[in-house]
Amino acid sequence: MSDEGRDLYSVGEVAEMLGLHVRTVRNYVRDGRLKAVRIGKQYRISRADFEALTSLPAPADEEAPAHGAAPRRHVEVSSIVQIDAIGPDAASRLANLVTASAQSPRDTPATLRVQTVYDKERARMKIVILGDAATTADLLQLVDGVLGPGNGMGNDLDQDTGRATGEARRG
Questions:
Q1: Among 89, 140, 155, 171, which is most exposed with the fewest C-beta within 10 angstroms?
Q2: Is the CB of residue 81 less than 8 Å from the CB of residue 130?
Q3: pTM (whole model) above 0.85
Q4: What angle is formed at CA 70 by the lines to CA 14 and CA 109, rounded to 5 degrees?
Q5: 115 and 95 in contact (C-beta within 8 Å)?
Q6: pLDDT score at 98
């Protein structure tokens, strides 16, 4: 049976279609980012909920393309930004900024999903961004600009020990 005719998908099938780890999809379900129904011990994701996650309109909502017209194309970008040598305070401020930017209203209906992780032992932050190409590019430019020299989001690590000082240097 083709994927088009399916009404429910397993977590594994959704993970495969999105190129994500099964655990990531389960976390999306638990966090409420992806709606799912629990059947027995497994989650099942409806086609409409899968399309809502991927920002694709449901077939019933989409007008059929005119005869000879090209079908509507959807592009989604997955980006992982790794920032080394960043202290916990700067990482927290950057996470707040990126999350607020992702949730701010836009001219386009596309959603932007962002997840941040900070590894205190390695003084490393990762930002995972999922969204359309233009909005993702805008967010990446914001991150690049914020991390530039003289912006107040400088490295708050002790240069001698390489450990976080707990206080960011002011520019």
A1: 171
A2: no
A3: no
A4: 55
A5: no
A6: 92
d(C-alpha 171, C-alpha 62), whole Å: 50
Residue 83 falls in which region: left (phi positive, over 0), alpha (psi -120 to 50) or beta: beta
Given pLDDT bands bounded at 50, 70 and 90, which one contains residue 166?
very low
Tell me the C-alpha to C-alpha distance, in Å, between residue 92 and each of 112, 153, 161: 19, 11, 21
Q: How far does CA 136 lie from the centroid of its chain?
A: 9
Three-class HEC string of the chain = CCHHHCCEEEHHHHHHHHCCCHHHHHHHHHHCCCCCEEECCEEEEEHHHHHHHCCCCCCCCCCCCCCCCCCCCCCCEEEEEEEECCCHHHHHHHHHHHHHHHHCCCCCCCCCEEEEEEECCCCEEEEEEEECHHHHHHHHHHHHHHCCCCCCCCCCECCCCCCECCCCCCC
